[in-house]
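Much of the work behind modern protein science is quiet bookkeeping, done one molecule at a time. The protein below has been through that process, and both of its lines are reproduced in full.
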Amino acid sequence: MLNSRPKIARVTCRFARVRATLLAIIKKRSQVMGVRKTIVTLIVTLLAATTGLFAQTPVGNPPSVSPFQQVPLGDASGECKACHPRQYFEMKQAVHFGYRNISPLFNGLEVAGNFLTGGLLRPVYGDSKKVLSDGTPLNTNMFTTPVFKDVLQATAGFCYTCHQALMELKGEDPNQREVPEIATGLDFRPDLLRPLRDYHFIDNGTPAQQILPDDPGLIPVDQDRCGGPCPGSPLSTTGITCDTCHNTGGPDLSRSFQHDGFANMGMLLNQTKEKVGQFLFPVATGRDSVTGAFHVASNDPAKMDYIKNASFCNACHDVRIPRPLPGDLQHNEVNVNPGGSNVSYYRLENLSTEWQTGPLSGTNNPFGRVVVCQDCHTSLFPYNSTSTYQVGDMTVTAATPGEFPITYAAVPGPLSCQNSQGDFFGILCSNTVSTAAAFDNPPLTTDIQYSTDNNFPLQQRVVSSHYFTGVDVPLVSFDELKARLGPDSSNPDNGTTQFFDADGNPDPGNIDCSGAPCLNEFGQPRALKTRREDLLKNAVRVSLKQTDTSARLGGTFVVRLEAAALTGHRFPAGLSQERTAYIELTVTDDNGFVVYQSGYAVDKPHPQTGELQPDGNLDDEDLEHVHIVVDPGKNTNVYQPGPETNGHRNQVFEEGPDNGPEERLYFGSDEGLVLFRNELQRIFLPGEGVGRTDANGNPIVANTPHLEELVSADLNNTVDNYRSLQPLHPRSFRYNITLPTQQELAEMGVTLKGSLHVHAQVNFEHFPPMMVRFIVRTTSPEGPSGRDLNLFKEADLDTFVKNVRNVASDDFTVNLLTGNSVSASPSH
């Protein structure tokens, strides 16, 4: 590869020049440093004040570890399957429906956060004996606190609340409490901490009781209580259940930091039979012999408007991390609710705010109307008509948002699990549902005959897809999905649903998609992987048409790339500090000789996680703009909170040869990687150690303000959420490329042939491998627990983390003129 100029890695403090905004921080250094130097002391003080009387659940699975018993599950999603099989089986593919709770990376990040903070992310309940530093009780969590007045109220159950709000709410009753309260502070025991997904399992008893795996992170196997592998609870494994959405009572303004219903499950959740849908004048629902009317369809227009509006998504799709003052060192935001001024926060996920401040939240956009989240994520999009419009200099053709299928919202007539074409929706869903065994998702049973009262006739109308397709796919095997979430799960790779009884007989609703691609009745692929890729292909466009048309050897020509997001939010969005989109750019001649490249990976060994040799797989490699290895922490005899023994700091941090993000942003150089990933960052102030030593073993201490990217959302003290692409707002990037001279080519034995071919494409990376490897290490015996939590291994990274390449691209031909250039200065 011939780069425009050689690069020398800046190994320790790569940001000699930090943004001008840091000057204000320097001016306040004495004040802020006093705060930052005491941050670990503050954490210790808070933790000591909240040391509880509840022991952590031991690892060895002794009897009576929890009072949890499975109770009648009238609000489990499987109960909705009788009348709404289409919606149920679509939701079984939505990652938030079940996979989010069993995700090894979600569980690993939650565990790592508890290692650092001393268990502060686990929930507390109304019977807690914990107290805050001022002596008042700490007996509410992120979902049950009326107004956050202390940071610990907002951190208690922080991850659990968004992923499992219904179960956390049920946990106020000790008999329904699935995740126990644990000891925190200096009494926290990393060696006893379990991943959240350990608590989802039940035995086959009547009533079913909770059972824990002998080894953390795995599926419990008990012949006496389960007859083999134990099943997941039909309620808790579903995560965001039907009721989480359809029992909404509207936004909870007092629990949202800006009193706006945004972030951190700022939603009212009613536990009643009233179900909120999108239809006026809903038909009365069917009845069974046990419960009578299954539910009452809401006639409240305010609730109906809420569930159809983007405001409905705000509660979960902004995530704001609570912090003690001063909070984010660059963006000073605090809770505006009365009494909440001591709770600061930073914005981890900003997706809903991005939509609200973007062009699709109004009418000044190519569609001339408000386009809400549901128009892309619960519609036929992108398997519908297209629209052509202008974005900057680009003429774009992409799928049109807001086109929905038309069918029945529930099964018309006698209940059946067949769609209008006579095809089964999915397994464990037989042709007749008049017997209790028809929906054998034990212990879910119903003898309901009709979806409407007295078989009142239904109309076909506009309905919503419940796939909720996004950019995530499960990072576990299909067999593990079925074992944890139930046998009616679909294979995310191809859409297959398949179940055989004990005698080997296939379920009549099996769907075999192992051959040709399978489509549902609306023409949408059943495979989550395919829908994800097609969604990404409608998310972004690039153009090279402003590139220089000619170049000479020895001279510099300019590649001008224009990029624009077509999404309603920024791209990438959500956990945008980990989701990675970038430009792969190559310049080649007619022979394919590479003159320049950016946006590439290099196959390397990773001995820290057991990969001793390069394995030929580039999907498990980070891009070459920066090299980061994160400290996983270590097990100690006496627990202390903070990063000294619990990791999260960078063990290795150095620029790579393709370091475009910092070259462009901080040094004004038009070269290197174009990266759209936002950054979790830590600002080290003068006199603060960065957590590494130099070549002589001396601690590295910042002499000037020093900025580093982190993978930890727990140790950062600021965030940059503006590297991602703004929706429908083109950005231009330049590459100044200096060609070798004729003499230099001759010395290499190379002759360039024909024209130069510039190719640019957008690639999407699910998670950066450096972050995944941190999870692998910190949840292994190397980490603070001293034992294997069985969440993710290097082999899993190789198997499941795959890039989606070429979601958008463009090509441009540059005429290569004969003779060397007189000057090598950039053209403009």
Notes: Residues 104-117 form the longest helix (14 residues). The longest strand covers residues 804-820. The CA atoms of residues 310 and 374 lie 7 Å apart.
